[in-house]
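request received
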Amino acid sequence: MSKSSIPVLKFDAVIVGAGGSGLRAAIQLSEAGLKTAVLSKVFPTRSHTVAAQGGVSASLGNSEEDHWHWHMYDTVKGSDWLGDQDAIEYMCRKAPEVVVELEHFGMPFDRTDEGKIYQRPFGGHMSNFGEKPVRRACAAADRTGHAMLHALYQRNVRANTQFFVEWMALDLIRDESGQVLGVIALEMETGDVVALHAKATVFATGGAGRIFYSSTNAFINTGDGLGMAARAGIALEDMEFWQFHPTGVAGAGVLITEGVRGEGGILRNSSNERFMERYAPNAKDLASRDVVSRAMVTEINEGRGCGPNKDFVLLDITHLDPATIMKRLPGIREISIQFAGIDPIKAPIPVVPTCHYQMGGVPTNYKGQVVREDGTPVAGFYAAGEVACASVHGANRLGTNSLLDLLVFGKASGDSVVHDVRSGELGLKDLPADFAERTLARLDRLNTQTGGASVAETRLELQRTMQKHCGVFRFKDMLVEGVARILDVEKAAARTEIKDKSKVWNTARVEALELDNLVEVAKATMVSAEARKESRGAHVRDDAPDTPANPNGRDDVNWHKHTLWYREGNRLSYKPVIMKPLTVDTIALKTRSY
Amino acid sequence: MATSTMQFKIYRYDPDRNDAPYMQDASVEVDYSIDRKLLDVLTRLKAKDDSLSYRRSCREGICGSDAMNINGKNGLACLTEIKDLKQPVVLRPLPGLPVIRDLIVDMTQFFKQYHSIRPYLINEGPRPERERLQSPEEREELNGLYECILCACCSTSCPSFWWNPDKFVGPAGLLNAYRFIADTRDQATNERLDDLEDPYRLFRCHTIMNCVDVCPKGLNPTRAIGKIKEMMVRRAI
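response:
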C-alpha cells in the first residue's frame, strides 16, 4: 500500500506514552505553545508510574544534612560503575529543582513538622559518600507514584495538552537519512491506523517487565518503545540488566515498597534470623536492591526459605507502631491484605524477588536526545524514563531514582524538543513513499493468519523462558540454551493467530502487537546477557564468581563498557562508559560493598 | 491443584458483529492455588475466547482500569475475590455510560465532569524557591481525597449521575473538587465554590451513598460533598 492509504496528522511534536516522563515532557511542550500530540495506550493516570510507592529522591536535606554530590556517589556506586557520570551528575543536581517544582504543581507530599516535604531512608541512600543511611526519598505515604502521576496529569489539564487516549503506537517512521518523522499508530476504539507526522518524536513508553513470568509490572508494560526502536534500526543499550525487586508479594508479584524497610521493616528467614546482617553488615536491609535480592535467593536456595515449600522469605513490620504503618504505609497494608491475605500489623508478609525494572533501553544523552553509537543525536528522536538508557542506572538502579529519572529527563527531553523545533533545526520533512508498508503488512498478517500459535501461549512460553534462563542468578549453559529458546519463541510469534478480527476495540490484536515488542526485548536481553562474561550489578553469572582479581566477579578490564544490541542479525557492539562528570571529579572505579 | 469450574454470564456486544447486546453463558477452569481475583479468571476466559474485551492494567487496584459491574455491584476485577462470588457470576459494563464493546464503556462524560472542576492546584502567587510549606495537619486534610483512582465505580453507581451525566459533576468529580478546596496551597476556594453552587453541578447529590458503598479505595465522596455544602453555608453567613 502507498502512503495515501492512511490518514496523516501533522504536529510539531508527538510524545508516545503518558506516564511520568511523557507527562513531564508534555508540560514543557504545551507551556511553550508547541502543537503536541500525546499518545497513550491507556488513560494517562492508568500508566504504570501510578504503581510506584516509596518515593522520589532529592537531596533536599529536610530532615538531615544531604548533598547532591553524595546522591551522585550513591547512584554511581549503585550502578556498579556502569552509569554515565555526566548524566548521573545532571540528574542528582537537578533533583531538588524538579521535586520542588512537582510540589508547586500540587503534589500532596507528606510533611515534616516544619511543613517541609517528608523524606525517608531508602536502599543505598547514604550520606558523606557511603557512610551511613540518609533520608532522601521524598514521599506521599506509600503512594508516591500515584500522587505524582495525578499531579502531572492535572498540570497538563491546566496546560491544555492534547491527548490521544487509547492509541497504540505501532512503528517509528524514519527517512533514508535516519531522521525520525513520527509514528504510525492504531486508534483502539475504531481500529483505524493513522500516521502522526512530527518534527520531533519523544518516546516515553516505559519498561517491558512483562517479559518475565513473575513481574511487579502492569499488563501494559510490554516494551512497545523498545520494539519500535529496534525495528527501526536503533540499538538497545545494556538490556542484560534487569532489576529484581526484593519484595514482591509471593505468588502474586505485586510490589511491596522498599520504603517498608526504610520505615524499619526487616527481612527474616525460616529461623527468624535477620539474614541481611550477614550479607551487608553496614546497610543491612537497606543495601542496594540487587544485593538484597541475591541474598534472599541464596537463603531460599540453601533451604532457609519459609512456608511449606520453603520458597519465600518474610518481610516483618510487626514491631513497628501500628500508627506509623497506618500513616506511612497504608497502601502496603491494603496490598498485603488483598494479595497475601495478611495484615502486616499482625504478621510478616511473604515476599520473593520479582522482576521490576529495566535498567537498559534506547540510548540517550543527558539532554534526552537519542544517540547513535558515536554519541551523535538521531535527528528528531528523544526518549525519557524507563524506555531510555541515559545511562543513570547502569547495572542496578537505586530505589526512588526511577521517579526522579522521569522528572529530570522528561523535562530535559521536552526542553531539547522545544529548542530544536524553535531554532528551526527540525523541519517537517516529507514522509518516505513506503513509510507505512511494514506496519500494514504486520496488521494484514494478523487479519489473515490461520493455523498459527495462540498469543497467550506464545507469550507465556516467552515469559517462562526468560524467568528460567535469565533470572536473579544466571548460568552459562542456561543462557546459551535461553538464546536458542527465545529465537524459537520469535518464530512462533511471527505466526500468531487471533480469532477476533473486529475493528472496534480489538484487544486480541493489541496483545498480538505487544507480543512483537516483547519478543524484541527478550532477544535483546538474552543475547546481551549471554555475551557479558562478568558479574556486575543485577547481572550475576556462575562462571564469573567473586575472586581476588575480580571482586564480586566484576571484570573491569574487559567489561567496563555498555552493550549495544541491534535487531538486524542479533548483532552486539559496545561503547565506553562516560566516566567524566559535567563539573566534579570522576568517581573512580571501586569494589562495591554495603 | 484445587481446580474447579466457574460459571459466568457476560454482557457481550461487538458493534462490528452484533445488532444488539446479549448475555453470554461462559465457564472456565480455575486453579484456586493460583487464581485469586476476578481478573485472574478473566485472563483465563480471554485465553479461551480472545474476543472478550475489557480494560486492565496494573492488576493491583491502583490504575483504575478494570472497573465493571460484578453481580450487580460496581467494583474492580483485580480486587474482587473469586471465592466470595455467587455463581453464575454476572458481569456487565459500568452502568450509565455508552458501551463501546463488551465490558468497555465510553468514559468521555465521566472525564468531562472531572475536568470541569479544574482539577489542578491554582496558586498564582510568585513561585517560591523551595516547597510551599504545609503542616502535617493541613496535609492530613487531603487524606481520603487524593487517593482517587478515577475508576468511575462511584459516579456510574449514582442514580443522579445516570439521569444528568452532562450536568451533575458526580461523586468522583466532587471528591476531587474538595481535594483542591481542602488544600491550603490552593487559592481558588471561592471560585471553586461559586462554580459548584448550582442546582445541578453539586445539588443533584441526594446522599444515596451508593458511591461510598462501591469505592474500591474506601473513599467517601458523600462526606466530601457534605463538606463542600458546609463551606457554602458558612461563607453565606
